[in-house]
Amino acid sequence: MERKIRVLVAKPGLDGHDRGAKVVARAFRDAGFEVIYTGLRQTPEQIAEAALQEDVDVVALSILSGAHNTLLPKTVEALRARGLDDVLVVGGGVIPAEDIPYLKEHGIAEIFTPGTPTSVAVEFIRQHVQAG
Amino acid sequence: MSEQLDRIVREKERWQETTVREALSRFPERSEQFTTNSGVPVERLYTPADVQIDYLNDLGFPGEYPFTRGVQPTMYRGRLWTMRQYAGFGTAEESNQRYKYLLANGQMGLSVAFDLPTQIGLDSDSPLAEGEVGKVGVAIDSLADMEVLFDGIPLDKVSTSMTINAPAAVLLAMYIAVAEKQGVPSYKLQGTIQNDILKEYVARGTYIFPPGPSMRLITDIFAFCEEHVPKWNTISISGYHIREAGSTAAQEVGFTLANGIEYVRAAINAGLKVDDFAPRLSFFFNAHNDFFEEVAKFRAARRLWARIMKEHFGAKNPKSWMLRFHTQTGGSTLTAQQPLNNIVRVTLQAFAAVCGGTQSLHTNSWDEALCLPTEESVRVALRTQQIIAYESGAAETIDPLAGSYYIEHLTNTIEAEAKAYIDKIEAMGGAVKAIEAGYMQREIQEAAYRYQRQVESGERIIVGVNKFTVEEEPPKNLLKVDPKVQEAQIAKLRKLKAERSQAEVDARLADLRAAAQSTANLMPPILAAVKAYATLQEICDVLRDVFGEYQPSEEF
Predict the structure, then answer these.
(1) Does residue B169 have a pLDDT over 80?
(2) Of A118-132, B2-16, B403-417, B530-544, the least confident
(3) To the nearest whole percent, how much of chain B has pLDDT over 90?
(4) Which long-range contacts (C-beta less than 8 Å, at least 24 apart) are formed by A49-55?
């Protein structure tokens, strides 16, 4: 049987806006992924550790506090420091378009901004995990 | 009367069978079923036969029980609502400038946004604060920052609302201390602290301590303010964030009032008399796009709270029965696509809040799905309120939509649905128990997911997002918080710690620890610690040590 795609949905930083994270987690589960949700206020180190423990294919980071330029690259670093080089990292939240190139340069494969249908994120993950 | 109603019922049936049927055979309706934004079924037409109104008992008169038509006898004919824009970012200096700008543009009261480290009791030099300092609000580490924040703003003249919850006692103490330095005694201070921890557990996420000690901090504030800061609104029981998290309108009312009941019960159990503290309770609601549903929601909330306070808690003072509320337009309704359309959404929402009888109002800026608002976009948001106030006519008569068959039907429906939620929560043992069991969180998540699916299936249209879309360039000139804010705050903090009397700070923190371990009111030792320039985190760390921290269970 084909292994299900495993996704860690995580909230780095201090903001409590988890409506998006939870809706996306539900949509991923309905799409057939195995989903783990970290809860709020996770540090990059905690997220990377959870990714390692849970042996995930994807880390999906939701952030609406404005601290994305600091915390998203740090999470990628923490993952790579644990040898998780193949884990796909994606992000979502209120993230200005002008910050996206910087985040992509720092290992975030894609950023999903407000209004993105969950099906777009699901499709992106299917394509990139299977390709990798 | 009932003969006339019978006739209306018969005539409506006739109309459906003849005129409507004929029209439908040629032009089917757009949909099989119509609903409000929250999913309440909507009929083709409402007539006097579709809504039961006992006018004197259910609607009554403004300023009188059950306050369905408004809490003030003359409403906006006497005084307009308070136009109060939530603002704050970067350092205290920058936010102080924005407040002065807003006051110069006709804003009537301040509303302080704190950054996330401040909201969860961390100083700017905490490792957890990295990247967050000054981002979603102003960074406040100690009384020294608060002195800068209100520099040149007379605290006996303005009223100030502070969106602060878990560490509300500390920020209120700082405000009292700043006022004292301006020569303003605490009994003259007017404003609000949000201080609503229950909705933090449910929807907003900036909790620190577990429910027990959190409720104690809240009732300590009630007791302290009753004596020393009598004009202060000691809590703003908030449905806003519950709605933003995806609830329906009826859940917003039901869960908020269930939380309100829990606070009232906690205060009574702490030995306070209901009529001593209840007049200082205030509420905070959302305004979404379904204009009629929102107007009905505000009216239903007022009537339901009045009945709870009078009938359930036996309050005697009419002020204890009044649900006074602030409204903010719905952040989650703003779209990043074609963002100027948000001005129209905000207008509809603000108009609903005014037609629903709000006491104060924040209008969101059109660019807030993208970033913090610029001065220019905030001015448009404030002007939106001023246009409603001075040009729309909505402020000239009280509760202008009352008597609309549809509005009264929706008011009854939302009241009944909200009441059913409250009864269910009470049967579970109250709001704290319901939250610990994850009940409110699950109900909200279900509603949020249902809504998202409706949007993705195209069943629900959002203009510019899933219909009427265009290719567009991302907007430019967005407001950016200088990343140097964190360094500046850390430098200020170092300087403060070097210059203050450490012995004094240690002594005040030891007093606070002793008080936390006893049942003494915590406000006096917090105020003393603040005046000694103990930092926010130093104070909260003492309380964390004694009280522990809240550990949520996460489900989705």
Answers:
(1) yes
(2) A118-132
(3) 93
(4) A49/A82, A50/A8, A50/A10, A51/A8, A51/A79, A51/A82, A51/A84, A51/A87, A52/A82, A52/A84, A54/A6, A54/A8, A55/A6
The answer to whether the CB atoms of A67 and B132 lie below 8 A apart is yes
CA distance B131 to B391: 43
Instruction: Look at residue B43 in the predicted model and tell me its pLDDT.
Output: 97
The token pair at B431 is: 């709001």
pLDDT at A131 over 60: no
DSSP H helical segments within B105-210, as ranges? Answer: 116-119, 143-149, 168-181, 197-199
Position B291, amino acid: F
CB atoms within 10 A of CB B29: 11
Q: Report the distance separating Cα B396 and Cα B398, nearest Å.
A: 7
Task: Provide the CA B8 distance to its chain's centre, in angstroms.
Answer: 41
Q: Do B131 and A25 touch (CB under 8 A)?
A: no
Pick the residue from chain A with its C-alpha nearest to B473: A97
CB atoms within 10 A of CB B241: 27
Helix ranges (DSSP H) in B271-374: 274-277, 291-307, 318-321, 342-355
Of A19, A27, A115, the CB nearest to B245: A19
Query: Complex ipTM, two decimals?
Result: 0.94
- Distance, in angstroms, between B114 CA and closest chain A CA? 12
Is the N-terminal amide bond of B167 cis, ω within 30° of 0? no
Rg (CA), chain A: 13
List the one residue out of B99, B95, B160 whose CA is nearest residue B133: B95
Distances (CA, A) of B476 to A38, B365, B452: 34, 15, 28
The CA distance from B413 to B429, in Å, is 25
Pairwise CA distance, residues B171 & B162, whole Å = 8
Overall average pLDDT of the B526-549 stretch: 98
Query: Residue A37: CB partners within 8 Å, gap ≥ 6?
Result: A8, A9, A10, A21, A22, A25, B554, B556
- Residue B152 in contact with partner chain A when CB distance is under 8 A: no
Amino acid sitting at position A13: G
Q: Which two tokens stand for residue B468?
A: 């009427």
Where helices occur in B229-311 by DSSP H, the ranges are 240-244, 249-269, 274-277, 291-307
What kind and span of H or E run contains B111? strand B110-112
Cβ–Cβ under 8 Å, residues B40 and B413: yes
Per the CB < 8 A criterion, the answer to whether B532 and B500 are in contact is: yes
For strand B160-162 and strand B191-193, is the pairing parallel, antiparallel, or unpaired?
Answer: parallel
CA distance A16 to chain B (A): 4
Rg, chain B, Cα only: 24
Using CA coordinates, name the residue in chain B closest to A28: B556
CA-based max dimension of chain B? 87
B464-520 pLDDT, tens digit per residue, is 999 999 999 887 778 888 888 999 999 999 999 999 999 999 999 999 999 999 999
Instruction: Say if B468 is an interface residue toward chain A (CB within 8 Å).
Output: no
Mean pLDDT for all residues in chain B: 96
Task: Write out the two tokens for B177.
Answer: 């201390």
Nearest CA in chain B to A46: B128
Alpha helices for B122-195 (secondary structure H): 143-149, 168-181
